[in-house]
Structure formats: structure tokens, C-alpha cells
Amino acid sequence: MTIAFYLIAAITIAGALAAVLLRNTVHCALALTVAFAGLAIAFLELDAQFAGFAQILVYIGAVAILVVFAILLTRGSETPKEGVFSKSWLAGMAIAAMIFAVLGWAVLSSTSALPNETARPAVNVLQIGNALMGRYVLPLEIVAVLLTSALIGAVIVARHEKGSAK
Amino acid sequence: MFGEGILKGLAETARNFAGSFVSAERLTTVQYPEQRIAPIEATRDFPFLVYDGADWEAGLRCVACQICEKECPPKCIYIEKSVDKKPDFTGRPQIYPTRFDIDISVCMSCQICVEVCPFEAIKMDTEFELSTTDRFGGLLYDRKELAKSNEHYHKIHPTEAAEVDARLAEEKAKAEAKAKTAAEAAAAKAAAAATVAKPAGGSESHPEEERKI
Amino acid sequence: MIKNADQVFVLLQHWVMSFFPPAFQPIVGLLLAVVAIVCVFPGLFAVAVLLERKGLGRMQNRYGPNRVGPLGILQPVADGLKSLTKEDIVPTSADAVVHFLAPVFLVVIVFMGYAVLPMGRNMTLVNLDSGLLFFFAMGASTELSVFMAGWSSRNKYSLLGAMRAVAQMISYEVPLLLASLVVVMMTGSMNLGRIVAVQNQYTWGLPHWYIFTPWGFAAFLLYATATTAESNRSPFDLPEGESELVAGYFTEYSGFKFALFFLGEYVGMLSVSGLGATLFLGGWSAPFSFLTWVPSWIWFFGKVMLSICVFIWLRGTLPRLRQDQLMNFAWKFVLPLSLLNVFVAGLWRFMGDGLSRWAVCSGILLIAYVVMARVGMRSEDFGPRSYRYAE
């Protein structure tokens, strides 16, 4: 647990907190981008270069843009009239605490959290590529089919809108 | 072929680029203010008053008829007439303007004042480098600044000036001829009246003198 | 002596590093390289701006700026002074924090891309194993700053310009990655130094640059198109078109922030030119084997400036593409061709060495080009106009 890890964790948590606590929705989206960047730096600190840069490329370069577009094209860009906290905040906090407990238990009981683990396996892009094309080719193809169907669905929805305007 | 247009365009631009270093037709810039293009004759910018001869006050053609002041659309001309008179180019005494101001920040160069002037007194100049640092009076020209000689008019608008001069000379000749015939007629009449008036007295000569004026 | 000229900057760096205790030497070396990059590339930006204005002028049958220094050389200095001394106007209804952060973010991200470019032999700042992926990650992050700029100005023109710019950048991101993917496939590594090293071999005096292969040439053209669109350059500069949307997403920026956007755009152009030179034109390797005595960094910067000249040439020649033409071109022409190029590169690899693979690959690509041009770029029959009213 080096100082670098604590800094990265602080940035990520600050970004995530800001994403739920800020009033302006677009500010929330930008804070979420900071959280994504924090995660990417965490990956890089663990020498997972591919994961880190792919996180930046995909999350900050595409998902954040998607979130921002969604906010802009709906009415989310206006500041809310009431406060940012909903009335059922107690139930929400309870559910969040339960989920955190489950996730924390899963992380702590996994093999990577052993305190004596100092030797990190060096995984380079070649091995990732081999694994994706060899052992994990079926999940890869299923994800590809999923993405293609989402793309086709988006095109159909947009076309249907244009058609109904006639 | 798709993309052919782009290649042709690129070739043309490259030709322009390379040609601009060697041929003048591919680099048509005139580097103002070191180089200038000579204005054509029909150029017009702001009006000026024409004077004949050497003395601008004595030779000023303007007779303060105020037609241009009334016809000017943005009303940029201001004229004050004189009380006394001085002779014009035909010799007749005419009033003259003691004050003739044109505000060239208002003037729109429509040339209406030139078109309506019956005395060929106001013409369009071609001077455009008139910027000044005095924002309150620098663009208000009085009659001394506006008065420019007939030679200047010949220089900037040669054909127009030649035509105007011909017309004025013709009018002057006509006026002189008329005055000469009138003078001859009056002299003949005076001679006839003198021979007749000797027996009849001087009572008939007075009405003839009034008629002469 | 030749080796010294080639490695002169590395030797300089090591000499300065030797003054510091060994514990600090790596940091000092890195800092020196960073300072060098931050000084050199804005200098190249000034040169590029000057080249652009004078070059465009000559192409348009006029002089460029020629009053400030001899032949107008000091014009960038005048421009810099002007943008520094102009008043910095922030609209009252603008989101001040985001408005301030957008150009800062852009410039920081754009300069990060230089960290992996091999600018000469042994002259890469950080020799990352997945260097190419890092570069594209940085390129993708610039879109966010464009959006931030457009949204924070609270101006409909800026927002429209930002939307268009982001849509354009996202659309051309995929062909860009696919075109570069071919190079990674053939090299077997994402390390930019390794990509240059593989291209640094010579057969009969000619180099093994990837642009001299059919798939490499196609990939280079696709890469050039995609990067022209990514940096919002003519003919894809509708988002910042001066005659269209006032100035698009940087309408509300004045003074130094505008200069930062301008800097970011040109420095981005320089960096993608550098990447293009690395991937397709052999990076710092010389074009003929008898020219290897010329220092490697001269070749690299020469190729970058040549790319800039081509960018300027394209700008002077082509009219601006309309937004829908731009998107059609991306999705219906460039993307299918880049996918096909990946397939052709695989075919090249598995057909083994010989003349047949040249013929087959070139044939496939040419036929695909002609077919896609006829099919993909057909102009639509729009039919009677339909209206859609706001409810």
C-alpha cells in the first residue's frame, strides 16, 4: 500500500463522490470522468498497461462522451429544482452499504489480496491477445455480437423516428 | 475515377504555388502603399470646388445658388451666401459663398450635387487617403480646402474637364456675342436717338438707359 | 562523428545528467526531455502557422503576411503578443470552471501524446510496450475537452459546433484505429520503437517502409483521412468553420485561451503527423540506404514537416465537407475499406513472400476502392421534403 495507491484511491473516490453530490448534471459527468481516470491510473500503477490505456480509450474517450450526450439531449442539463438528495436516502444508504459489504468480502477473499503477494505476474499485450484468440474467443465473439446488435438497434430506432416523421 | 477531382485540384494548387514565384499572373497582389493602381477616370470620392485662374477666391465658380445644398440626400453641404457681389466668368456680378462646408464623414459620394450644379462649380475628386486623427473637425472641409484649380480638374478627369471647358467657353462666347450685339444695338439706338433727340430734347434717352440694364 | 551528430541530443542529456547524484539522474533525464519537447514543438507550431499562412497565400495567388519581419518571419511573434495582450472575456452565464479547464485539458492531453514518439535513434521519451495504445488513448481524450469547451460557453453556436466536432471525431476514431491496427498486425508489437526498427531495413537500397506495400499504402491514405478529420482540419473543419458557425466550439474564447486552442490543434496535428511518419514512413529511418549518414532526427522532423505541408496543401485545395457528407464518407467508405484492409493485410502475411501476394492484395484493394466508390458514395434520392415540428 504505497503512497501512490493512496493518492490514486483519493482521486477516484473524490471523483465518484463528486459525481453523485454535485448539483449540475454535466459537472457530475465530468467528475465521473475523473473517477474513470483514477481507475486507469490504478491499472497503470499495477503495470497492466493494456487495461489502463484501454480504460482511458474506451471509458474517457467514448463512455464519458456518451453520458454527456445523453445528459444534453434530454432535460438533464437543467439544474434540479429540489435538492440532490432523494427522500428515501436511508433505504438507499442501507442498500449501498450491503452491496459494499458483498463486494468487499469478494475482494478480500480473492487470491490477489494476500498481503505477502509482491511478485506480480507480467502480462503483456501478446499474452492478452493470445488468450483472447485462444481460450476466451467465445466470450469475445459473444460481446461482439452484443455490440453489433446494440448498433443495429440504435440504427433501427433512429430510422424509425425519421420514418414516423413522414 | 473516384478521387480524380482531388488530384486535379491538388495539381492546380501546386501550379499556383510554384507559379506564384515565377510569373506575375499567378501573384496579382499590389503591395499598397508602396505600389498603387492608377484610378480610372470615372473614379469619384468626395466633391471639390473648381476655380479658374490663379486666385481661388476670385476665380471660384460657385455662386451660392444653394441648389446642391438642397439636393444633397444626407445634407452634408452647408452654404452661407455673401452680401456683396463679384463678377463671374462672363463678367456679370454674382454673389459668392462666404462659407461652403462639406462634411465628408456624411457625404455618400452620390454625385447629385455635381449633376444639379448649373455652373459646373462642384466636381468629384479622386482623393481617398483622407484619414485623420482629429475626430471632430478633421473631416469637415471648408471652402478653402475644397477649392481646387481647374488644372487639377483637368488632371483627374481630362475628358470631362475638356468638355466642361468647351461648354463654358461656348457659353462665354455666346454671352459676349449677345453683349456685343446688344451694345451695338444700344449704340446704334443711342446714335439714332442723338440725331433725333437734338430737335426733340433729352426726354427719350432716359427710357433707353433703363432698358439697357 | 556521424554517430555523434545522430545522438547529439542524447549525449547532451547524459552530460547534463552527469552533474546530478545517481539517485536523481533518471528524473533529471526525463525532465530534460520533457522540457525539450515543450520547447521544440511549440516552436514547430510557430513554423507551421507561418508556413500555413504564407503557403495558403501563394496557393491563392497572393503574398502571405510579409510586413512583420523579413518575409513575414516574425508574424507568429506578433500573433503571440496579440493573443497574450487581448482581454480575456468570459461570458457571465458561462460555467467558469469548465470554461477555464477546457483549453488547459486539451493542451495537456495533446502534449502527452509526444511521450511515446520515437524522434530519432534512442530518442523516445518513454519506450512503452503499448505505446500506440497510449497515443490513441490520448487522442480519444481530446474529444472531451472539445465538448467541455462547447458546453461551458452556454452558446447555441458553440454547442452545435461541439456536437458536430465530437460526432466527427468519434466517427473517424474507428477507421483511425483500424488503419493503425494493420501496422501492429504486421509488426507484431505495439511498441513504436520496434515498429520503426522493423522498417529500418533496406533491400536494394530501398527501405522497408510500410507505405510501399499495398496494404500499407491504403492504410496510409485511410490514416491521413482519419487524422485530417480528427484534428478538425479542412476539408473536415465544419465544426470550427469560420464562415459557418462563427468559430464553432471556441466562439466564446478570446485572448490567450483561444491561442491555447489554436496551439492544441496545431500541436495535435504535429503529433499525428509524427505518428503517421512512425507507422508508415519509417519514423527516423532514411529513405535510401546511402543516406543513413544524415542524423535520424532530421529525417523524423523532415517527414513531420512534409506531412504538415500536405495538410496545408489539402486545406488550400478542397472545399469544406458538409456534416452529413462527412459522416457518410466515414461510415460508408472509410470504415468498410479499413476493415477490408485488415483482411488484406492478413492475406499478405499468410501468402508468404513472392510476387503473387503483391498482385492479389493490390487487386483486391483497387477493386474494393472502385466498388465502394460506386456503391457507398451514391448520392441519396431524398424524395419529397418532410417536416418535423417541435411539440
Mind explaining what this structure looks like?
The complex is a heterotrimer of chains A (166), B (213) and C (391). Chain A is mainly alpha-helical and 166 residues long. Chain A has 2 domains: 1-78, Up-down Bundle (Four Helix Bundle (Hemerythrin (Met), subunit A)), CATH 1.20.120; 121-166. Chain A is built from 6 helices and no strands. Chain B is built from 8 helices and 8 strands, in the order αβααββββαββαβααα. Helices cover 65% and strands 1% of the residues of chain C. Chain C has helices at 2-6, 8-17, 25-59, 75-85, 96-112, 131-152, 156-187, 192-199, 214-230, 256-280, 296-317, 323-350, 355-376; strands spanning 202-203, 206-207. Chain C has a two-stranded antiparallel sheet with strand order 1-2. The chains are: A mainly alpha (166), B alpha+beta (213), C mainly alpha (391). Chains in contact: A-C, B-C. The interface between A and C is medium-sized, with 24 and 29 residues.
Question: Which terms summarize this structure?
Answer:
heterotrimer, B: 213 residues, alpha+beta, three-stranded mixed sheet, 45% helix, elongated, disordered C terminus, C: 391 residues, mainly alpha, two-stranded antiparallel sheet, 13 helices, 2 strands, globular
